[in-house]
Design brief:
Blueprint: H1 17-24, E1 28-29, E2 31-36, E3 42-47, E4 50-54, E5 59-65, H2 69-77, E6 79-84, H3 90-95, H4 106-110, E7 114-115, E8 124-125, E9 130-142, E10 145-157, H5 170-173, E11 177-178, E12 184-185
Antiparallel strand pairs: 1-11, 2-3, 2-6, 4-5, 5-10, 6-9, 7-8, 9-10, 11-12
Bound molecules: flavin mononucleotide.
Flavin mononucleotide binds near residues 45, 63 and 178.
Length: about 200
């Protein structure tokens, strides 16, 4: 058994850093983001550079690699909804990542049912088991990418997707994940483990 490592230095022009990073930072949750342009044209697109950015105040973030309709819409209207990309929605989630004309509403084109959100004018995906309604907090420009931070105004979860403790239940959410290349992850096996109070404790 060898412990020799391949080294990918980012100053080596032969290194394909984007596919290397996306195949290394895995699995990533998928934010299926609904937005609206200033003219009112709807948009829906998956973004896997996505996570919680701050606990209090609650803020989530996603990254647009390049200028996309989602980013432009968020800049224009300052609102977006993160819809959880659940396993039964795999095909529509993937289909919505195609390069649609900005004047085309992906949800309309693909027959994805939307319904009104509570706190923002952007609708949510009706079949998504959970949605996070956001108002733009700020953007951070980084090279070819832009981080979008959104204040969480409300989280809505299907009652049938809540466990007895009132929190979303993984087995009901069935979240898809994004891996490297064109690979996707099925919902993972889940186990619970107590967090130790003291180092070495159990
Ligand atoms: C599962 C998945 C995850 C993606 N994650 C991102 C991402 O994090 N950032 C990004 O800019 N594009 C991402 N893409 C590509 C966008 O979805 C794609 O460029 C889409 O056309 C953007 O749509 P829009 O122009 O309507 O915003 C992802 C695609 C897929 C299939």
């Amino acid at each position: 058994m060898t412990h020799e490592r391949a080294v990918f230095a980012t100053d080596d022009p032969a290194v394909r850093i984007y596919p290397l990073l996306t195949a290394t930072v895995v699995p990533r949750p998928i934010a299926w983001i609904s937005t609206r342009s200033a003219e009112g044209i709807g948009n829906l697109a998956p973004h896997s550079f996505y996570t919680v950015a701050c606990a209090n105040p609650p803020i989530v973030q996603f990254t647009s690699v390049g200028d996309k309709d989602t980013l432009r819409n968020v800049r224009e209207t300052r609102e977006f909804v993160v819809n959880l990309a659940a396993a039964p929605m795999l095909d529509p989630v993937n289909a919505s990542s195609a390069r649609f004309d900005p004047r085309v509403d992906e949800a309309e084109a693909l027959g994805i049912r939307l319904e009104p959100s509570l706190m923002v004018s952007v609708p949510r995906v009706a079949e998504a088991p959970a949605s996070i309604e956001c108002r733009l907090h700020s953007v951070i420009e980084l090279g070819d990418s832009t981080i979008v931070l959104g204040d969480v105004l409300a989280v809505t979860v299907l009652r049938t997707a809540l466990a007895a403790d009132g929190l979303p239940d993984m087995s009901a959410l069935q979240p898809l994940s994004r891996l490297g290349r064109d690979e996707w992850g099925h919902p993972p096996a889940v186990f619970a483990l107590d967090r130790p109070d003291v180092p070495g404790g159990s």
